[in-house]
Write a structure and sequence with these properties.
This protein is mainly alpha-helical. The chain is 76% helix and 0% strand.
Length: 125
Protein backbone atom coordinates (compact mmCIF):
# COMPACT_ATOMS: atom_id res chain seq x y z
CA UNK A 1 0.00 0.00 0.00
CA UNK A 2 2.79 2.45 0.83
CA UNK A 3 4.29 2.09 -2.65
CA UNK A 4 0.93 3.11 -4.12
CA UNK A 5 0.67 6.17 -1.87
CA UNK A 6 4.29 7.12 -2.55
CA UNK A 7 3.79 6.77 -6.31
CA UNK A 8 0.67 8.92 -6.11
CA UNK A 9 2.51 11.57 -4.07
CA UNK A 10 5.34 11.79 -6.60
CA UNK A 11 2.85 11.85 -9.48
CA UNK A 12 1.09 14.80 -7.84
CA UNK A 13 4.41 16.57 -7.31
CA UNK A 14 5.30 16.11 -10.98
CA UNK A 15 1.86 17.31 -12.10
CA UNK A 16 2.04 20.41 -9.90
CA UNK A 17 5.56 21.14 -11.14
CA UNK A 18 4.39 20.88 -14.75
CA UNK A 19 1.35 23.06 -14.05
CA UNK A 20 3.59 25.63 -12.35
CA UNK A 21 6.39 25.78 -14.90
CA UNK A 22 4.75 24.52 -18.09
CA UNK A 23 3.06 26.59 -20.76
CA UNK A 24 0.23 28.67 -19.24
CA UNK A 25 -2.22 27.35 -21.83
CA UNK A 26 -1.72 23.77 -20.62
CA UNK A 27 -2.38 24.59 -16.97
CA UNK A 28 -5.73 23.28 -15.78
CA UNK A 29 -8.28 25.92 -14.81
CA UNK A 30 -11.34 25.67 -12.60
CA UNK A 31 -13.98 27.86 -11.01
CA UNK A 32 -11.92 27.98 -7.79
CA UNK A 33 -9.79 30.89 -8.97
CA UNK A 34 -6.02 30.98 -8.91
CA UNK A 35 -5.64 30.87 -5.11
CA UNK A 36 -8.23 28.11 -4.82
CA UNK A 37 -6.49 26.03 -7.47
CA UNK A 38 -3.15 26.49 -5.71
CA UNK A 39 -4.68 25.62 -2.35
CA UNK A 40 -6.32 22.45 -3.65
CA UNK A 41 -3.18 21.29 -5.46
CA UNK A 42 -0.83 21.85 -2.55
CA UNK A 43 -3.08 20.53 0.22
CA UNK A 44 -3.30 17.30 -1.80
CA UNK A 45 0.48 17.22 -2.24
CA UNK A 46 1.02 17.77 1.49
CA UNK A 47 -1.56 15.15 2.41
CA UNK A 48 -0.13 12.61 -0.04
CA UNK A 49 3.47 13.07 1.10
CA UNK A 50 2.40 13.17 4.75
CA UNK A 51 0.69 9.80 4.35
CA UNK A 52 3.45 8.37 2.15
CA UNK A 53 6.31 9.21 4.54
CA UNK A 54 4.85 9.20 8.08
CA UNK A 55 8.20 8.60 9.79
CA UNK A 56 9.70 11.63 8.04
CA UNK A 57 6.67 13.92 8.01
CA UNK A 58 8.32 16.96 9.63
CA UNK A 59 11.40 16.68 7.40
CA UNK A 60 9.19 16.31 4.31
CA UNK A 61 7.09 19.31 5.33
CA UNK A 62 10.20 21.46 5.71
CA UNK A 63 11.60 20.26 2.42
CA UNK A 64 8.23 20.92 0.76
CA UNK A 65 8.21 24.56 1.90
CA UNK A 66 11.76 25.08 0.62
CA UNK A 67 10.99 23.37 -2.71
CA UNK A 68 7.78 25.37 -3.10
CA UNK A 69 9.93 28.50 -2.78
CA UNK A 70 12.36 27.17 -5.37
CA UNK A 71 9.47 26.31 -7.69
CA UNK A 72 8.07 29.81 -7.33
CA UNK A 73 11.48 31.38 -8.06
CA UNK A 74 11.94 29.15 -11.13
CA UNK A 75 8.96 30.95 -12.65
CA UNK A 76 11.23 33.96 -13.28
CA UNK A 77 12.79 31.89 -16.09
CA UNK A 78 9.58 30.25 -17.35
CA UNK A 79 8.05 32.13 -20.29
CA UNK A 80 4.61 33.52 -19.50
CA UNK A 81 4.95 32.80 -15.76
CA UNK A 82 5.23 35.19 -12.84
CA UNK A 83 6.66 34.50 -9.38
CA UNK A 84 4.47 35.97 -6.64
CA UNK A 85 4.88 36.04 -2.89
CA UNK A 86 1.13 35.46 -2.48
CA UNK A 87 1.38 32.21 -4.46
CA UNK A 88 4.28 31.03 -2.31
CA UNK A 89 2.37 31.80 0.90
CA UNK A 90 -0.79 30.03 -0.27
CA UNK A 91 1.18 27.04 -1.54
CA UNK A 92 3.38 26.68 1.55
CA UNK A 93 0.51 27.14 4.03
CA UNK A 94 -1.80 24.70 2.30
CA UNK A 95 0.95 22.09 1.84
CA UNK A 96 1.65 22.41 5.57
CA UNK A 97 -2.07 22.02 6.24
CA UNK A 98 -1.98 18.85 4.13
CA UNK A 99 0.87 17.47 6.25
CA UNK A 100 -1.10 18.34 9.41
CA UNK A 101 -4.18 16.63 7.97
CA UNK A 102 -2.07 13.52 7.32
CA UNK A 103 -0.91 13.56 10.96
CA UNK A 104 -4.51 13.89 12.20
CA UNK A 105 -5.57 11.07 9.87
CA UNK A 106 -2.81 8.81 11.21
CA UNK A 107 -3.77 9.65 14.79
CA UNK A 108 -7.46 8.94 14.13
CA UNK A 109 -6.71 5.64 12.38
CA UNK A 110 -4.47 4.55 15.26
CA UNK A 111 -7.24 5.36 17.76
CA UNK A 112 -9.78 3.53 15.63
CA UNK A 113 -7.57 0.43 15.40
CA UNK A 114 -6.94 0.47 19.15
CA UNK A 115 -10.63 0.75 19.99
CA UNK A 116 -11.52 -1.97 17.46
CA UNK A 117 -8.83 -4.21 18.92
CA UNK A 118 -10.04 -3.60 22.47
CA UNK A 119 -13.64 -4.27 21.46
CA UNK A 120 -12.75 -7.55 19.74
CA UNK A 121 -10.92 -8.79 22.84
CA UNK A 122 -14.05 -8.36 24.91
CA UNK A 123 -14.30 -7.56 28.60
CA UNK A 124 -11.56 -8.85 30.87
CA UNK A 125 -12.68 -11.40 33.46
Amino acid sequence: MSILIRSFAWFLAAAVTFATLGPPGLRPHSDLGQDGEHALAFILVGLAFGLAYPQRRVLCAGAAVVLIGVLELMQFWAPGRHARLEDFLVDALTASAGFALAAVTDWAMTRFRQSASAASEGPAE
